[in-house]
Amino acid sequence: MRPVAGGADLARRDWAEGAAFIVDFGEHLTGYLSFRAVPVGSVADSPIRLRLTFGEVPTDVAEPLYPYSGWISAAWLPEEIVTIDDLPAVAKLPRRHAFRYVKVEVLAASRRFGVRFEAMTAHAVTSARNEPAPLPAAYPEWIRRVDLVAQRTLRDCLQTAFEDGPRRDRRLWVGDLRLQALASYATLRADDVVKRCLYLFAGLPRSDGLVNGCVYERPEPTYGDTTTLDYAALFCVTLQEYVEATGDTVCGRELWPVARRQVDCLLARLDDTLMFHDTGETWCFIDWAFGLDKSAATHAVIVFALRRMLALAALLDCAGEVDHYGPLVDGMAAAARKQLFDAGRGVYTSGPGQQVSCVAQAWIVLAGIPESVDVAQAALRNALADPQAVRPITPYAYHYIAEAMLACGMAGEALELVRSYWGGMLDAGADTFWEAFDPADPLASPYGDIHANSYCHAWSCSPAWLFRARGLGRPPGFTGDSLPQGEGA
């Protein structure tokens, strides 16, 4: 799209039935739209009917939303039909949207008058109470840009809870929460919202005690009836990181039984050799990559969570309650090395087809399963170099590849991964980071239609944490004792 007039010109132009225009607010935001509609040329002798399409990216407003081919409800498509009876009038849309662009189409109006749109205003909403200072100028410009866009992504998802996407799904998922919380500790310090989210999950379990993969806030807190085994494991991890970041041991102790219950439920799903196998009975997410076998990655997530449970127990002075987890960690790691490692290819495989995927290597490295750093590094490099290996399509999974690289001393490659993947989204025009992005197929959608995609999605905000908390990309000789961040809440 190209600009044809400045914002001030809009209030000086008249629009008749059949006319359309697009307003660009300059950056992505979550919020509400208002405007004043004024008749021009004659008294308004009829209502006007408008179609308003809200766009996070240009394709939302530059091409038709229909025909729609997605498998999730078309009710998520970001459009409104608005009829205004009495002109002039101020219209305030009651529904919240996530958008940068708004396309206005005059569907119906009397031929006797034109319509002028004045005071077109976007009212942004967020629970963020501060904005951290930018990264120092010593950082490369591309890192500063990725950091800024990551923070804007977090800001626009930060409402009364950490929403996964303010456009769609507008709910709280455990996997998203972990990455949002990490980014928040390094930037916005919305610690109170992290705590609230942990209690929402803990208070809405399913009958066997497993937390749900997602919960809803509105119209009242309700469990999502979607259990995700890898997300249940990450509840324990997120609680441990919250206690470590805030020192809130009171919350940690209160939610400790919930965290333990997740681990115990997951351990009950192991076979006699201490291996987890994805039977499909209960959903494992890991990534949206098509055809991904999730057994190895989920096994590793459980080991990762077990290690964090031991760390949480130490923080809460209750290590004696989980002494038996230590041998289980060792046994599960040994079983994975024996059953999953393909020494000839130098990778870990998954499932009966011995599938190789990049995200399985990442989780296995994070779980501390490889016998050495050399083996860990080789597994990641070999999978990434294998054209047959399954590659992820979400920033969520790419985050864990980057985190795994940092865990085994591959900082340079982690930085290049962030540059190529998140930087690739910037090159494609992102001003918040997206739910899904496949560099080989930028128009791919997990839902069958790109108009169902979310283009401001919580799980893509993690570069802010990688840069600020993990030191990724820190310039040589940088002497700052700490990077700028928000104040604790």
Your description of this structure?
The chain is α+β, with helices and mostly antiparallel strands and 489 residues long. It folds into two domains: 7-124, Jelly Rolls, CATH 2.60.120; 141-468, Glycosyltransferase (Alpha/alpha barrel). The protein is built from 14 helices and eleven strands. Strands 1, 2, 3, 4, 5 and 6 form a six-stranded antiparallel beta sheet that branches. Helix 4 (174-186) runs parallel beside helix 6, helix 10 runs antiparallel to helix 11 and helix 10 (358-366) packs across helix 12 (395-407). The two termini are 41 Å apart.
Structural class determined from secondary elements = alpha+beta
In terms of quaternary structure, what is this? single chain
Q: Helix count, per DSSP?
A: 14
Give the class-level CATH name of the largest domain.
Mainly Alpha
CATH-scheme architecture of the largest domain: Alpha/alpha barrel
Query: Would you count the extended β strands for me?
Result: 11
Q: Which bin fits the share of residues in helices? A: 25-40%
| Main sheet overview | 6 strands, antiparallel
β content, as a range?
A: 5-15%
Low-confidence segments, given as residue ranges, are: none
SSE order: HEEHEEEEHEHHEEHHHHEEHHHHH
